[in-house]
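Input/output pair, single chain:
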Amino acid sequence: MKQDDRRKLSGIGKENTVNIFDQAMKFEQKGMHYYHELAKRSWDPSMKKIFSWLAVQEEQHFKLLKSMKKVSTIPPHRTVSFRPLRGLLRSIGKSMVVAEVTLSQLAAYRVALRMERNSEAFYLKRAKQAGRGPLRRTLAGIAGEEARHGDTIEYIIAGMDKKRLKGNTVSS
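Output:
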């Protein structure tokens, strides 16, 4: 992207725009690696699929941001469908009744939730700074997806906490 075009699109100056992309790509890489690790360590096949799916979403955000940093236009951001997760979340809700949940898993999922909420706040703040235009819409779109990622993790945590409160097996 040409520096002048970036400044016109963002309304926040070329140095800040490049810095936003760099910061955002770091968030996405960290999330991608963390979700790959959670998928690898997950005991439940549905959980593996959810965390693998989230890792792919973070990777797509990374690629979008990387291309925005390099090309002369900001591509339109397409909102991701969360439909594939619905069935998986229902199956996790059922499997939580019989599966053993560890305190370390709960802690790991809370870290993921915090990462998603921090990413969401970052993108919302940067979208407001970007003024009007495609950069703002793209950053706001990514913020919305990060919010839904957080909601997904929150749902999983709530199910695990519910199980713990009912006195079902939770080990450390």
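The CA atoms of residues 88 and 131 lie 38 Å apart. The longest strand covers residues 101-102.
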